[in-house]
Design a protein that fits this description.
- This protein has about 160 residues and is of the alpha+beta class.
- It contains two helices and ten strands.
- The strands form two sheets. The chain has a six-stranded antiparallel beta sheet. Strands 1-2-10-5 form a four-stranded antiparallel beta sheet, with helices on one face.
- The longest helix is centred in the first third of the chain and has 14 residues.
- The protein is globular, with a radius of gyration of 16 Å.
Length: about 160
């Protein structure tokens, strides 16, 4: 998390960090398999390429979305989906209906230096996060990695004007 002061302009960079919930959700999946049980109706079970991340809002009010800062060390794609669940930190029973729209899709092509995205969706998604920050101290995200990209190859954050 970084904060910059330039005159009256104050930028707040909130970094995506891997959540321990990824492990708990994987254990839930294993438990269901071992018991030969079915998930709850609508329950989201993590696929191997999906991971839960979190962003901690050190400031909640008067945030205005500025930009995404997504750095991919290699070609591939990451899809960032927000969750509406905020009343409990236990996402082991994350439901599909709790996944928010739009999603942020970021990709890097072979030989490219810059990460690309669908700017309209990324802008709308960032603005929605700024709104949700007013009522949350933490927000969870489902990140889906494709094209050979892995979590260790991502450095991501969202930047706001405070």
């Amino acid at each position: 998390m970084q904060s910059e002061d330039k005159g009256q302009q104050h930028k707040l960079q909130l970094i995506f960090s891997m959540s321990t919930l990824t492990r708990r959700m994987r254990l839930r999946f294993q438990s269901l398999q071992q018991k030969n049980a079915r998930p709850q109706d609508g329950e989201k079970l993590l696929r191997p390429n999906e991971h839960i991340y979190r962003v901690d809002f050190i400031q909640q009010h008067r945030l205005r979305f500025l930009r995404w800062d997504m750095q991919l060390e290699r070609p591939g794609k990451v899809t960032v989906t927000g969750t509406s669940q905020h009343w409990t930190p236990d996402l082991t029973h994350l439901m599909n209906r709790q996944l928010l729209e739009p999603v942020g899709i970021f990709w890097k092509k072979l030989g490219a230096k810059e990460v690309e995205c669908n700017e309209a969706d990324a802008q709308e998604f960032g603005e929605r996060i700024a709104e949700l920050a007013q009522i949350r101290k933490v927000m969870y995200f489902l990140l889906t990695f494709t094209g050979g990209l892995e979590p260790a190859q991502l450095k991501g954050s969202v930047v706001f004007k405070a």
